[in-house]
Design goal:
By secondary structure, this protein is of the alpha+beta class. Helices cover 37% and strands 26% of the residues. The protein has two domains: 169 residues, Ribosomal Protein S5, domain 2 (2-Layer Sandwich); 130 residues, GHMP kinase, C-terminal domain (Alpha-Beta Plaits). It contains ten helices and eleven strands. Strands 1, 2, 3, 4, 5, 6 and 11 form a seven-stranded mixed β-sheet that branches. The chain has a four-stranded antiparallel β-sheet with strand order 8-9-7-10, with helices on both faces. Strand 1 and strand 2 form a beta hairpin. Bound molecules: L-homoserine.
Length: 311
Amino acid sequence: MTKESDCISVFAPATVANVACGFDVLGFALEHPGDEITVKKTNTKKIIITKIEGAEDLPLDADKNVVGVAIKALLQELGSDQGLEISIKKGVKPGSGIGSSAASSAGAVVAVNKLLKAGFDNTALVRFAMEGERLASGTAHADNVAPGIFGGFTLVRSYSPLDVVKLNTPKDLYCTVIHPQIEVKTSDARSVLRISLPLKKAVVQWGNVGGLVAGLFLEDYDLIGRSLEDVIVEPIRSVLIPGFDKVKFNSIQAGALGCSISGSGPSIFALSKGKATAEKVKKAMSEVYENFGIEYIVYVSKVNPNGVKEI
Ligand code: HSE
């Protein structure tokens, strides 16, 4: 029989990356949805994924699954050949834009760190989980895995060396996320971006990043709203998302502080002060896809100040 200490289960939350102005550097965690990951020690010296519930198309082969790759990065640095068996229950749909691969990678490395008492700090765990992101999208970006592991809002101040800063989460901040049921692959959404940009646009963007970070610390909701503007990525990627302009317009009309693409899309997020406004935004967003006849899932969630947690 498996001893209790030979097994751990965690909940790993969905995350919103970019947060309008902070492409590849800003993100925050949601309360729900999320993945559940169970990791068990074995004597096989192998990493075996036994089952993936809720996304049966994902590969069980540990070298082709973000969970296996992230765990192997951790074990390699630990110098351990510990065998592990992993089962995954996907609550975050792949290709949704709310950090599906990141939830699994972040959950897996936090679970293994705890199970093996490996003692890695959060920044090291982000580094391992980023290997999962590299496999999933071709780029080891950290703006989903960082808030997944640290909780709340995070800023990736630098990638080289990796420097993640946990920001403040204003207590009345709620998020509404709508996921039209189409899939946009992160790798495709990255391939449409331009690699250079005019200095004028960069000036607007870094003003907004600074404004958003200041707004979060000052708990100045108006400043947060004014800063939720993306003049670089959103204009290019929004064409991949049916009804984006209308969803954004309706959200602001309903009282949202701001609205933009969640990660690489197709999900769209809005931030609001208070749950009542976030619920109005949910209705306003939903109406667009009702009218278009496009199926959708919509969530209202408080910004989650905690990251992956043991269950
Ligand atoms: N920053 C990444 C991107 C997030 O926008 O491509 C992907 O979820």
